[in-house]
Amino acid sequence: MEHFIDGKRHGGPGRTADVYNPATGQVAKQVLLASAEDVATAVEAAELALPGWRATGLSKRSAIMFKVENIIRERTPELAAIITAEHGKVLSDAAGEVARGLENVQFCAGLMHHMKGEFLEQAATGVDVHQTRQPVGVVACITPFNFPAMVPLWMITTAIAAGNTVILKPSERDPSAAVWIAEAFAEAGLPPGVLNVVHGDKEAVDELLTNPLVKAVSFVGSTPIAKYIYETSAQHGKRVQALGGAKNHMVVMPDADLDGAADAAISAAYGSAGERCMAVSVLVTVGDVADPLIERLKERIAKLTIGDGTDPASEMGPLITRAALDRVNGYVTGAEAEGATVVVDGTQQEFDGEGFFTGVSLLDHVRPGMKAYDEEIFGPVLSVVRVDTYEEAVRLINTNQFANGVAVFTRDGKTARQFEFEIEVGMVGVNVPIPVPIGAFSFGGWKNSLFGDTHMYGPEAFNFYTRRKLVTTRWPEPSESQINLGFPTH
Ligand code: NAD
């Protein structure tokens, strides 16, 4: 897979990496890994395109957003097939991530509203003040493997709508969706150089973080890399938002509808093989809920169909790589030695072929201090932590290092309200297991799930991708002119 620089594909010699089809375990293609010089070439193309794009009328920018939304919507099956071939998630799930990405394109089509400034007449006698929003410049967007279309669409669309030019560095494990999207933007009329895609690893990322022409960095990925991106970008004077990993808890209160809670937990824990930053990975059962809930989970797990994501019968596909498979299975095989109970052992499920498949696993009696609880597993493993009281559940969650998403299942409004009030997590669901905000709000966690202070997509992203400029205006008569060395007063 080539880069996409200045409106065209960009090949060339250099290092490459294997891209797998996770369902077969076979190498499907090679992806170029950009050198620092390749990245600098893309950054220069973006810098050259910046004055023209910045000056482009907002109605024209908006028209491009409408057009690209139509192109991607009409050809969603094509893009979903690309995602499934490299990521492994089932086709319906791949189409779902495209739809969620398009929500942000729709939001950005309303950019005239989001780019509006403010005006204050007569701030002092004869003095007006107004504020405009201007783009920050060349923006780097670095994205993870698990949403190869949605997360790029969160970042690049808003950055472009706000008048910036962009270098997208997608995950090298499933790089093709990014180039497809860049070509869709080009077809919609986006001028060359406004959106560039470079593939690569640490070498490419480090050039983006240190190149003085890059003014802002958006990142989504694992916590250690997010922290590195945040610190390095800041050291080089860039504004940065870096979203990290997660450990999302779902609290089930004794008054919850247990069938509904079981359906929600299964969907949120095992959908996309647990490779979602908002996946539920810990089920916190309060009081006597654990046993009846686990019975319901077992019944549902027995009926799940795991297989090639292109097979419409499959509900869950493989993991992204063999290394991910071994790592995820390791949490299950090591759980018993740490004192947990393996209720369902997905590692024992057999699959034909060499694909990176595992079954779903359910662990019980998990506690803080165990690896399965303390670390982000990022696979189809659901851990049950039993607690006696609501207060214990809240304490458990509020002392966790991650704080991306959380859910409470209850039929009691007072409990739900109290939970919403005191839980220290960025996105909260009440009887909603994966509370990803719709496009009119912004997305982001707290603590080690987000470094920086601006959330992604939606209104906050327009703040991140613009600088506010304040203009103070006065039109005095020449006769009013005088020298005054004092501090201006009104
Ligand atoms: P990752 O951190 O391994 O990679 C993310 C990006 O960083 C990729 O583009 C990769 O090429 C680059 N990268 C990897 N190692 C690097 C290094 N040493 N130096 C510089 N750049 C490097 O993450 P991943 O495995 O692709 O994605 C899964 C992770 O992303 C999980 O932890 C998941 O929770 C997280 N995630 C978080 C959110 C969120 O909204 N908070 C959303 C999606 C995924």
TrEMBL record:
<dbReference type="InterPro" id="IPR010061">
    <property type="entry name" value="MeMal-semiAld_DH"/>
</dbReference>
<keyword id="KW-0520">NAD</keyword>
<dbReference type="InterPro" id="IPR016161">
    <property type="entry name" value="Ald_DH/histidinol_DH"/>
</dbReference>
<dbReference type="InterPro" id="IPR016160">
    <property type="entry name" value="Ald_DH_CS_CYS"/>
</dbReference>
<keyword id="KW-0560">Oxidoreductase</keyword>
<dbReference type="InterPro" id="IPR016162">
    <property type="entry name" value="Ald_DH_N"/>
</dbReference>
<protein>
    <recommendedName>
        <fullName>methylmalonate-semialdehyde dehydrogenase (CoA acylating)</fullName>
        <ecNumber>1.2.1.27</ecNumber>
    </recommendedName>
</protein>
<dbReference type="GO" id="GO:0006574">
    <property type="term" value="P:L-valine catabolic process"/>
</dbReference>
<dbReference type="Pfam" id="PF00171">
    <property type="entry name" value="Aldedh"/>
</dbReference>
<dbReference type="InterPro" id="IPR015590">
    <property type="entry name" value="Aldehyde_DH_dom"/>
</dbReference>
<dbReference type="GO" id="GO:0006210">
    <property type="term" value="P:thymine catabolic process"/>
</dbReference>
<feature type="domain" description="Aldehyde dehydrogenase">
    <location>
        <begin position="15"/>
        <end position="471"/>
    </location>
</feature>
<dbReference type="InterPro" id="IPR016163">
    <property type="entry name" value="Ald_DH_C"/>
</dbReference>
<dbReference type="GO" id="GO:0004491">
    <property type="term" value="F:methylmalonate-semialdehyde dehydrogenase (acylating, NAD) activity"/>
</dbReference>
